[in-house]
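Slide 14.
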Amino acid sequence: MVSKRIIPCLDIKDGRTVKGINFVGLQDAGDPVELADRYSREGADELVFLDITATKEKRKTLVKLVEEVARKVNIPFTVGGGISSVEDVNMLLRAGADKVSINSSAVKNPKLISDLANKFGSQCIVLAVDAKLIDGIWKVFLVGGRVETELELFDWIKQGVALGAGEILFTSMDHDGTKNGFANETLKRISEIVNVPVIASGGAGTMSHFCDTFEHGNADAALAASVFHYKEIEIEDLKKELKNQGINVRL
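Slide 15: predicted structure.
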C-alpha cells in the first residue's frame, strides 16, 4: 500500500513565508529556508513552495530562493507561482525543484499542461486548483484566489488530468486557515473522478483532521502550513498518531 504523505507548504511573499485565513490577512510566518530545513529534518514527506504573488505581480518565481531551499532539503520539492512556459519549468528544475505546480496559467492556456507533461513527464506536473463554494457550485479562482472564473471545479480537474497533470493539489478557499478540517466530501469526489494522487489543502487544525482526510476524503496527501510553522502540530507526533490510527505513513 502506498504511504499517505504529509506536506508542509511555504507560501512566499516578498521572500518570506506568510499565512492567512481564506487567502487574506497574510501574516509573517518565518524564513522559508530555515523552515524548509526544519521540515526536511522533522520527517516531512515532501515540501511545497508557492510564490503566491508572482502571478498577480506578473513576475517569475524567486529562483534564487528556490536554489537556497533545494540545498537544504532531501525530500521531493514542488515549486509554484508565475509559471507559464516550458522555459520557466526548465529553470526551476535546474534550480533544484522536483515538481512544478501550475494554476492560473493552466486555466488561461490549458495546452500548457500537455506541453509540460510531454516535455517533463506527468509525474512532474501538479495542477493546483483553488476553489470556493458559490451558490452551491464549486467555482475555480485564479491569481491567488482574487479572480473568480466560470469554471466548475470537477470539470476543470477532469480536463486537467486528461491533458496530462500527474497530481491534483486542491485547496478549499472556504476552509483555508480556518483550522476546522479539510473539505473531505469534495476531496472524496475528486478522488473518485481522477486516477492521479490528490493532495488535500485548506483547513488543517488538529491531528484528527489529517486522519479524517485520509479516511473520509480519500486524500493521498495532506498539506498544511500554519499548524506546522507555529509548531501547533509536530510532524513526528502527527505521523505516530496516524500510524496508531491504522493509516500507512512513512516514519
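Speaker note: The first helix runs from residue 32 to 42.
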